[in-house]
Amino acid sequence: MSTPIAIAASFTEQALPPWRRAVLKVGSSLLAADGGGLSPRFALGLAQFVSANLMAGRELVIVSSGAVAAGRAILPKAAEAGAPIAARQALAALGQAQLIALWQRFFERPVAQVLLTHDDLRNRRRYLNARATLGELLRLGALPVINENDTVSVDELKLGDNDNLAAIVAALVDADALFIATDIDGLYSADPRSNPLARPLDEVTELTAEVLAMAGGSGSSVGTGGMRTKLEAAAKAGAAGIETYLFNGRNGDVVRALAQNRLHGTRIHAARTRI
After folding, report:
1. What would the pLDDT profile of 184-196 be if each residue is shown by its tens digit?
2. For residues 207 and 238, is the Cβ–Cβ distance under 8 A?
3. pTM of the model as a whole
4. Could you tell me which residue ranges the Aspartate/glutamate/uridylate kinase domain spans (predicted)?
5. What number of other Cβ atoms are within 10 A of residue 88's Cβ?
6. Is 16 exposed, middle or buried (0-12, 13-18, 19+ CB in 10 A)?
C-alpha cells in the first residue's frame, strides 16, 4: 500500500495549480516577531505577495492575527492586572486598529476590517450575510482583512484557531487555495527545532492519523496556534475541495517565489475535487 506522504531531502520547488481566489493566513509570530508589538519586517514581503497577485487579476482575503500582541505593546502590564481572558480581550480591542493600520500602509486600494466569531459562521443567516458582504468587498476591489472578534469571543484566545477560521473563510468565499504563512519552512516528520532527523514533507495527499501525529506545539511565544491547528485547518479546507499551502513567511526568497506561483513548502491536497 502506497504512503500518502511524499518525503524529500529538503523542500523542493513546486509549481502550484492555477487559482483565481485565495485566503492568506498570517499569524502573530510574523507580525510581532520580537514580541514587542507589530512590525512591518515580515508583513512587507507578504503584502508584496498579495499585491503581485492582485495585479495579476486574482483576488485575496487576508486572515490576520496580531491584535493581542499589538495591544500588549500599548499597555504591557494589562495582561498581568486582570483576569486572563478579559485582559486579553481588552488587549485585542486596543490592538485591532493598529493591526488594520499596519496592513493599510502597504496598499493603495482600501483595506476592509471584518471581525467574525465562530458563532457568526455557525448561524446560517449570519453566515450568508458574511458571505454576501465579503463577496461585495471583493467585487468593489477592496482587500478584506479578517480577524477573530477577540473582544467578544473566547474561542480564538483559548485555542488559537485563526488557522481554522481561515479555512472556514476559504470555504465561505469559494476560494481555490488557502495559504498559511508560518515561521518554519513547512511540515516535517518531527519538530525540526528539537529533532535534527526531522524530514521535510513536500506534499501530503491525505491527512492521516500518522500525519497529524507529526504536528508539534506552538512555535512562538506570541502565537497561540501550532502546526496541529494548521493541519486541522487544512483538513477543513480539504473537505471543501480547497488545497492548503504551508510556507515560511519569514523567508523573503520563499515569499517572492510564491508570488510567481512557485512553492517552497508543503502542499496539502484537498480531500475531494471541487464541483
Report:
1. 899 998 877 788 8
2. yes
3. 0.90
4. 21-248
5. 24
6. middle
